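To assess whether the prediction recovers the assembly geometry, we first specified each molecular entity separately, as shown.
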Amino acid sequence: MADSQQNAGQAPPVEVHDLTVSYDKKPVLWNIDVAIPEGQIVGIIGPNGAGKSTLIKAMMGLIPAESGWVRIYGEPLARQRHLVGYVPQRESVDWDFPVTVRDVVLMGTYGRLGLFRRPGRPERETCDRCLEQVGMASYANRQIANLSGGQRQRVFLARALAQESRIYFMDEPFVGVDAATEAAIIELLRSLKNQKRTLLVVHHDLQTAADYFDSILMLNMRLVAFGPTSEVFTTELLQKTYGGRLTILAEAAEQVAGTRR
Amino acid sequence: MGPEFFILADATNSSLWSQVVRFWSFQDRAVQTATAGMLLLAISSGTLGCFIVLRRLSLLGDSLGHAVLPGVCLGFMVHWTKDPLWILLGATGSALLASWMIGFIRRHSRLKPDAIMGLVLSGFFGVGTVLLTRIQNLPVGNQSGLNQFLFGQASAISEQDLWFMGTLSLVIVSCVMLAFKELVLTSFDEGFATAIGLPVRGLHYLLMGLTALAVVISIQAVGVVLVSAMLITPAATALLCTDRMRYMVLIAVACAVLAGLVGLNLSFLGRTLPTGPFVVLALALIFVAAYLFSPRYGIVARAVRRLRQAQKTARENGLKSVFLASPHDAPASGVGLETLTKARREEPGATVRMVRALARRGWVTQEGNHVALTDAGLIRARELDRNYRLWEQFLTDEVQLPADHTQRDAENLEHILEPDLVRELEARFKERHG
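The predicted structure of the complete assembly is given in tokenized form:
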């Protein structure tokens, strides 16, 4: 712990080296190299199928990498999981599951609690505070099926807040939410940033991208550009990211998959 | 038939009623053993079934149930006797082999899980049936009761079996209680569980292993063919009754216990009838009852809610028609019944009934042929009228529907708009129209 605290001073929150990831034997990300600076809101943008979700999942070790490595504050991920918070895509879970809003937010404290230990009063207090922060305190005892899209997103955010992490990975948090929720989310992200947290946000709305993010990572199966928004959010780089698929990479991926099946 | 079997069958000479009494007084040692076994397996499979159903692994439960048969036969063939230890080992072994095969075929073929499970389920069951037939045709005297593994016979549970069942149930229940929060989280959101470092794979195998154990302790009383019903039906019933995981487990266990006892009693009354089908029958009846009468998700409750909403809409439309037919400058002064009937374009009788319903509600008073709004009625009518206009305005302003498209929608929505949304609509209206 003392070690990682010390490293925190120098090493970047997330460092990715030569990361290649395959999905169902087909490479979807090629040789990604990037170091994310601390205390920024970083947008990950790119066309459909560019590997945006795959990138953050691989960074968190949810999908095994074919090659390359990921370090969190200079250490392998396995030792640093407690520093990493996650907001999955809303559609990734079954919202008919028999749990309440409070149950879901409490799940954010499970990583700290450790195996087999039950959440107690401190965890419930954390949970209530996080619900308050996203404006969902009055919904604590609701079954999650009865929530709107925006409310579900807020519940997932509250769960991530309950993780009390230093790095947050968020998969399309703005998709399908109402304007009020979108404003609330961006406000929340900014307040996290002010507390020196680092946020990586998968995003697909170019209209708002320049406004929301300090840095932007442009992705289309490989890293197209990464840097401060003012420098990389240019017509030229956007065209490079979105304009036409990289036929060579896509075809090579198909052929790699073919030889492995 | 084994000797322990006759203890129960003897009772069939006496009257049906006295047998019912004999069963439910639990004084008979054979009844006690069978009941204890049934309780143990009901608790185990009721608990695990909840996770199986929520993880959409119901078909896997069914596959494991069928897959234990060859193992049971092989276990019997070790000493050519119904030694519970070997039968247990054989059953567990073949359940594990089956689940490994399902995973293996899935990784190395283009087949989808449902086809693979169907394949493995029938394959194992076929092998098991062949072995069972072979054993029954052999000239050894000990195979009695082995065929009961197909459809279950609770009275064949020996006291030695009971010890095994008890130990395994204890293992199952304590594992689930210990890892409850982990099992719930991995079932709900596997990605998040992995991200926070939970041993997701380990928990999956734990659950599969425990399910195999639950199947093994169930086959004596319920039989391999129907054992999956013991996992799936109680959990499915419970899911129709509650929105909390904890209660779901408790309700599932209660259903399994109830069905187990009823099924046991029925098979006991009918001399040599197998237990499994009766237990499953009782489970199915409980499920149908929940499907019909569950307070939240039952179809009766849903129909009642729809009916109430329809009544509310009709009542509120009635109130609005009184409001609109009354003089605009003095709405509380009321309106004649005849005018109202004409405005509503209906039969006089319908108007009278409507007015009577409003009067019961305290919204109008009726004197002779004159109907007048009360204070409460006036408040509600104004509220409805305003909601209607707000919504209509919203549709014209922001959704930009042409005026002739807005009316129907507005009429439906004014009855269900919640206060929050009404405030939001008001704010938008003020923004646009000042």
